[in-house]
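Same chain as my last thread, 332 residues:
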Amino acid sequence: MKLEINSNTSNDLHTILNEKFKIKCVTCGFETKSVFSKRMGNLTFKSYAFGNGLNFHIIKGDVLQPIQIDYIKNNSSIRYLFMLSGDLIVKLSDKVRTRLSSNQSAIIAVNVLQNQIFTFPIQNNLELFFIELNKERFYPINQTEFDGLPKQLSEVFNTNPSENHFLYQSFYTLNVTDVYNQMTLAKAEGILKRFFYESKVFELLWLQTEQYKNELLYGYDTNVLRKVDVEIIKKAKEFIHNNCGQELTLAILSRSIGTNETKLKNGFKKLYGKTFTEILLNERLNKAKLLVEERLLSIKEIAQACGYKSVTMFSIRFKEHFGLLPSQYKNS
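reply #2:
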């Protein structure tokens, strides 16, 4: 599937999606949502338009056919990309091309009349969010205001066309994950949601620009969320899933995985938006729900199998989570 975009507005993007692929598109206030059919990948594309050249996009789901998005002659946009999971190939010219994988981020821009081309290979569990920033929103502006930026990035904001493209790629920080989790978990609606989302988009711009600046000066920061750290955290979550019926503390978990408690404690919160205790509780109760549905064990046996010494406490937690006591759920 190939999509050509020659506009900087998110509404035009979704209009083109709707016209070309006949997919469902819903707009509510500053939020637009398009949902691809299952045949095309069961993919969700959300956009948040803040006006004056600032857009925020979230793409999530499975890709069953390769998708190519061509931003035609789109030299006025700077894009900040964040790959939570999956792969994306970015092409700025015949010589400038890169592949973004899970936990990586990038800042990209073209300064000549070239296309920015995004290619999504066939894959499962893609999750990407990115910011589109039209540099024309800063004009007219005193050039000295860009002095705080590294020279190459400052030149991107320059009005004079050049032959250079801009590409910065790295692993994003834990703080970026934290901001994104705050956005996805936000309960605000209407104008309050817009205020909140827009403030967080600017925070993401600041965090990623600061990371680029600091890496130029000092190299990689120790707070950067490296892929190896993410794999350790994911391995720890899998360990919880497989051993949730046993006695399990953060200390026991860290020794079993071969890392320290602080990394796991911070990593769970940043990567999943939950604490160790919340993750353990969810795993135990989800396991309990499956065992109740199987109807092979008594409630007492299920409680013990899920790490609960007290049937009463197990029943309380089960009702808090699912709205019914285990016995009621079993009978229903």
